[in-house]
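Homework help board

Subject: predicted structure for assignment chain

Our instructor gave us this sequence and asked us to write out the predicted structure in token form, then describe one feature. I got the tokens but I'm not sure how to describe them. Can anyone check?
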Amino acid sequence: MSCTQYHYQDLINLFNQCFAKTHNTYLIKGDDEPIYLPADERRAYHGIYFAYGYFSSALHECAHWFIAGEQRRQQIDYGYWYKPDGRTKAQQQLFEKVEVKPQAIEWILSVAAGYPFKVSVDNLINNEYINPQPFKQAIYQQVLVYAQCGLPARAERFRQALSQFYNTEKTINLTLFSTEHC
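My token output:
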């Protein structure tokens, strides 16, 4: 890993340069819980709020936005269910099922930024039955699909912006991905 400094403001600037004009969407440093808020009578723009200024949270919340279709982007948090830390085994399985694609995109974006990626099971309280290996493998398999078939267009646009800004690989280089490193 290089001596690159990672500042969330760089992600904000890059994202907003890519999508503020075309999609009226801004990446914004939030507080404790990330949230997506569509434009409404109080706010003339769509906002992707990431937690505490964490670089990885910003990448992750962007990944959710890249996957969300037009109708989903008109709903708070894209209209998805979310149960915070302390999920049951069944709830955790549902969480992992819906998090495969966003975390695969987050991983690809992290590599484009030269930033370390760590899979998040996001369940520290009830973790006695969590085996992260199948989840990691599912995310890796999704990375392979994206490498072969391409990312969603907005995700690819941001990946290219990150790659240019951080001077990293211009394409998705699969040798940079391994479940042992996430």
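Reply (TA_rk): Your tokens look well-formed. For the description, you could write something like this. Helices lie at 8-23, 55-67, 89-113, 132-149, 153-166. That's the kind of observation they're looking for.
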